[in-house]
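Contributing new records

If you add data, match the layout below exactly. Sequence lines come first and carry their own label; structure lines follow with theirs. Keep one chain per record. Anything else will be rejected by the validation script.
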Amino acid sequence: MLAKLFYQDIKSWSLKNQFDVITYIPASRGHFQQRGFDPVYELYADIFDLKKLLVKVDADKPQAQKNRLERMRTPQTFLDLPEINLIPRNQRILILDDIYTTGRTLMYAHDIFSEQGFQNISTFSLSR
């Protein structure tokens, strides 16, 4: 329902901003099994040609249940998928997320791409 509510605004933004590769913050396996869907993927899938390039490792508890200090102390939660090696390093990368609270999640995702040699990395979140 949230995806439908924000579709037009996100679509409008997407038409004004061009990227070569668009990926997203994936749900961890446990979160996916609990909900039955990936909320970030569902939010953007009808607008962008999404590439799954990251895997999120299950954490001790979801980010939404952590306070600011716990979020900032969370260790790296992402692994890159082999598909990342097929992307030329000069491509413009966009990483999508749903909610930006402390920025820790997007920073860790950004770090994965940066460590792989990408330099033109942007992020977009529905809300902050």
